[in-house]
C-alpha cells in the first residue's frame, strides 16, 4: 500500500483492521496455490474493502442494534429507519469506493471495494474470492 492508502487503513478500528488482515492472509495463501490471480490487487482490496466504514464509526453496539432492527423489520431496515449509521453500514462499499477514488486508486480496486457485498455479480473471480474470505473472517 502507498502512504495515502495506509493512512486510510489506519482510520479503521483495530477490530476492522484485524478482520481485513485475516482476509488478506487467507487470500495470500489462496493465491500462492493459484498463480493466475492478481495477488497484489486482491491483497490491497482485502485490506481496504471496508474502508467506507471509516466515514462514520460504528461500534459493536451500533452493529448489533442494526442487525437486530434489520431482523425485526424483516430486512426492511433501510425503509423504516433513516439514520446515517444505518446508511454507512449498508452502503460502505460505495462510500469506500468514493474515498479511494479521491486518492486515485486503480479502477479494478474501486470495483472490488464497491461491490464486495453485491451478490448479484458472480462472474468476477477476484470479487468471488474477496467475498468468500470476507464472509469466512
Ligand atoms: Fe464490508
From TrEMBL:
Domain HD: 18-121
Record CDD domains: HDc (cd00077)
InterPro entries xref list: HD/PDEase_dom (IPR003607), HD_domain (IPR006674), HDIG_dom (IPR006675)
Name the UniProt record assigns to this protein: HD domain-containing protein
Biological source species: Clostridium kluyveri (strain ATCC 8527 / DSM 555 / NBRC 12016 / NCIMB 10680 / K1)
